[in-house]
């Protein structure tokens, strides 16, 4: 049985300036987006409308705003409205953690819409380009959750070799659910999407696979994670995260299964 290391949330302090691990994980997420995005942009050279580095920079800027604003508002509205409405100044304290993926996802959708209008690209061109760049960012986010010792797992069988005690919670062995989600939502989903998107696909297919893949990974991961209260109240049967994942799975299946008039003509760029 393991014990959570109880990391100091501050990675580096220089005088009054404190750099937190959670912020560093977001920085790594944005850096990998830019690095892998350049590779995808270079691979689009032979397409009808290739991606430029300048477009990638703009997309990262808009996406970062959507992730942070949407993620925080999602946490406030979906999971802890009572707390944040009682402590409104805490809403802006994003360095303390507390970001909702589903809220960040909605924020990114809004950013995609603005970017698509600005550049004259179709919405699915943008979404299909970005989808394979997201999972490694999720991986770093979950590692940040683990370092912060938040979003801990449900009680586990003490004989489980990797069962972990989170001293800030109690003395029970628990599933390190943050690491489960880092593996499923991050590494596994990245490998699947990167390989799938290496071949031109009809518009919306890569986005659809992302929605289904993330939705299923999150739905499974929630069985090992201590459920959040959410706006529907605390439920250990179907958690708030699972409720929010169901529409993603449904939308993704529709995108994957819908009939297309042709493949080459509709291939995502």
UniProtKB/TrEMBL annotation:
EC number: 2.5.1.145
Gene Ontology molecular function: any one: phosphatidylglycerol-prolipoprotein diacylglyceryl transferase activity
Record keywords: Cell membrane, Lipoprotein, Membrane, Transferase, Transmembrane, Transmembrane helix
Gene Ontology cellular component list: plasma membrane
Membrane-traversing stretches: 20-38, 59-79, 99-116, 123-143, 179-196, 203-220, 240-257
Protein's UniProt keywords contain Transmembrane: yes
Pfam families listed in its UniProt record: LGT
Membrane topology summary: Multi-pass membrane protein
Annotated metabolic or biological route of this protein: Protein modification; lipoprotein biosynthesis (diacylglyceryl transfer)
Top-level taxon: Bacteria
Primary localization: membrane
InterPro entries listed in its UniProt record: Lgt
Sites where the protein binds a 1,2-diacyl-sn-glycero-3-phospho-(1'-sn-glycerol): 142
PROSITE patterns per the UniProt record, alphabetical: LGT
Function as written in the Swiss-Prot or TrEMBL entry: Catalyzes the transfer of the diacylglyceryl group from phosphatidylglycerol to the sulfhydryl group of the N-terminal cysteine of a prolipoprotein, the first step in the formation of mature lipoproteins.
HAMAP family, per database record: Lgt
Family per record: Belongs to the Lgt family.
Full protein name: Phosphatidylglycerol--prolipoprotein diacylglyceryl transferase
Originating organism: Oryzomicrobium terrae
Lineage: Bacteria, Pseudomonadati, Pseudomonadota, Betaproteobacteria, Rhodocyclales
Gene: lgt
């Amino acid at each position: 049985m393991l014990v959570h290391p109880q990391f100091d949330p501050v990675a580096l302090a220089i005088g009054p300036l404190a750099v937190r691990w959670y912020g560093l994980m977001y920085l790594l997420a944005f850096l990998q987006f830019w690095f892998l995005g350049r590779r995808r942009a270079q691979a689009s050279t032979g397409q009808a409308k290739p991606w430029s580095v300048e477009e990638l920079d703009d997309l990262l800027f808009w996406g970062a705003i959507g992730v942070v604003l949407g993620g925080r508002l999602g946490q406030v509205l979906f999971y802890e409205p009572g707390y944040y409405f009682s402590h409104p100044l805490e809403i802006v304290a994003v360095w303390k953690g507390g970001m909702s993926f589903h809220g960040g996802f909605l924020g990114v959708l809004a950013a995609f819409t603005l970017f698509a209008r600005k550049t004259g690209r179709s919405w699915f061109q943008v979404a299909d380009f970005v989808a394979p760049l997201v999972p490694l960012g999720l991986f770093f986010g979950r590692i940040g959750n683990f370092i912060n010792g938040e979003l801990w797992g449900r009680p586990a069988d003490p004989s489980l070799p990797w069962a972990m005690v989170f001293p800030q919670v109690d003395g029970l062995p628990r599933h390190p659910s943050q690491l489960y989600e880092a593996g499923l939502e991050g590494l596994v989903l990245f490998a699947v999407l990167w390989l799938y998107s290496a071949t031109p696909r009809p518009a919306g297919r890569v986005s659809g696979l992302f929605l289904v893949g993330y939705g299923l990974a999150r739905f499974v991961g929630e069985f090992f994670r201590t459920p959040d209260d959410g706006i529907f109240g605390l439920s250990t049967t179907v958690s708030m995260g699972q409720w929010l994942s169901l529409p993603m799975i449904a939308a993704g299946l529709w995108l994957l299964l819908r009939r297309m008039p042709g493949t080459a003509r509709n291939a995502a760029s």
